[in-house]
Specification:
The complex is a heterodimer of chains A (114) and B (113).
Chain A (H helix, E strand, L loop, with lengths): L3 E4 L2 E5 L4 E7 L4 E9 L5 E8 L4 E4 L2 E6 L4 E6 L8 E9 L6 E4 L3 E6 L1
Parallel strand pairs in A: 2-11
Antiparallel strand pairs in A: 1-3, 3-8, 4-5, 4-9, 6-7, 7-8, 9-10, 9-11
Chain B lengths: L3 E4 L2 E4 L5 E7 L5 E8 L3 E10 L2 E4 L6 E3 L9 E3 L8 E8 L8 E2 L3 E5 L1
Parallel strand pairs in B: 2-11
Antiparallel strand pairs in B: 1-3, 3-8, 4-5, 4-9, 5-6, 7-8, 9-10, 9-11
Classes of the chains: A mainly beta (114), B mainly beta (113).
Chain lengths: 114, 113
């Protein structure tokens, strides 16, 4: 059974700092990994999707890496801003349905203070 | 403007009543999903559908039912058999296949008292 863990559970940083969020998964047989952002009381916004054959994906100040063999992904946020404050969720797609099933971590709550 | 809509945003019901949550998408996606989110537990899959008139149970389907009569719509009914229905419910959709990402709606917060 796939299990996804995110560390740390919460992170508070001053504005402008570069930061790294970590995601680990127990079964390396994945199709892809997706990073989401969730604001309080809202739905999930997809940030980055990394296919199992890829090592990293970039979007603006965000860079996500994937090391499938070690079961790890990191989300790097450059030059953090107060608007980056949210919960960040990692989800891996692996077996479980005809086209794979997403298994979510419990998230990292990020606070960026001015 | 393509996306997923869920209604209502907040829903209050008395224990013992069935309630239906709406999910509509105009992304032309074949696959649709329902998740439940509880504090400290992450998202858990309730039901999913990969094509019209077909749906499958997820990890926590007991006490829930769905229908998929139209490609755009995937309503979720929370029945009185669901032991602990108070939660945040999220609908998602995707293209069919391993490679595609899921997109989520804004969610419905259900409170049952």
């Amino acid at each position: 059974k796939q299990e996804v863990t995110q560390i740390p559970a919460a992170l508070s940083v001053p504005e402008g700092e570069n930061l790294v969020l970590n995601c680990s998964f127990t079964d390396s047989a994945i199709y892809n990994l997706q990073w989401f952002r969730q604001d309080p009381g809202k739905g999930l916004t997809s940030l980055l999707l990394i296919q199992s054959s890829q090592r990293e994906q970039t979007s603006g100040r965000l860079n996500a890496s994937l090391d499938k063999s070690s079961g790890r992904s990191t989300l790097y946020i450059a030059a953090s801003q107060p608007g980056d404050s949210a919960t960040y969720l990692c989800a891996v797609k692996s077996g479980g349905t005809s086209y794979g099933k997403l298994t979510f971590g419990q998230g990292t709550i990020l606070t960026v203070h001015p | 403007d393509g996306g997923i809509t869920q209604s209502p945003k907040y829903l209050f019901r008395k224990e013992g009543q069935n309630v239906t949550l709406s999910c509509e998408q105009n992304l032309n996606h074949d696959a649709m999903y329902w998740y439940r989110q509880d504090p400290g537990q992450g998202l858990r899959l309730i039901y999913y559908s990969q094509i019209v008139n077909d749906f499958q149970k997820g990890d926590i389907a007991e006490g829930y039912s769905v229908s998929r009569e139209k490609k755009e719509s995937f309503p979720l009914t929370v029945t009185s058999a669901q032991k602990n229905p108070t939660a945040f419910y999220l609908c998602a959709s995707s293209a069919t296949g391993y490679r595609y990402e899921q997109y989520f709606g804004p969610g419905t917060r259900l409170t049952v008292t």
